[in-house]
Specification:
Layout: E1 23-24, E2 36-37, H1 38-47, H2 50-54, E3 65-69, H3 84-109, H4 114-127, H5 131-145, E4 149-153, H6 156-165, H7 172-183
Antiparallel strand pairs: 1-2, 3-4
Helix pairs in contact: 3-4
Amino acid sequence: MEETPPKYCKFCFGTEEDNDMSFVHPCRCRGSIHWVHNQCLHMWFSKANAVQQVMCIQCQTRYQKQLTLKSWRQWTIPRLGIDFFGVLEISTDLWITYRTILGFVGMMNGTKGIFRELILCTMWKCFVASGRRFCFYGNLGLRLASSIFRISIDDYDERREITARLPTDMHWEQISRSSVLNSQ
């Protein structure tokens, strides 16, 4: 009979015997960094940068997060953790997006030149529509949502088992999207 190795949290190094906190395996990592306490993972999310809140930095697996509505008595004011530089970045992104939209409309009406608008669109794509900025805004939205929703992380092993049982032409992302659409 094969004995299962004890679970160790990769953040606090606690074991199952140390306390009664629940474990989750949120990504493809194996070995000593396989498991993490749910509470430790949420604490990590509150301190980590935008990209690290979306995916594991070791194995590059995207975390699958589920939102459950809290009782209205548990709603809180969100902690956004935005400093002056963050407010400046958001303001700049909004200004560039606004100018890009106005310029595109003006170009379509014939009042703006195409060369100027191509430069503005390139600037928007490089600075505003980058992967890092999408992660930043996604996490900002998640922090806002966490004030009224309970956020839980799906276990990677359970996702992998479900994926293995799917027909070969279906993928986890399609099922996740369709289940979200069906629940609305």
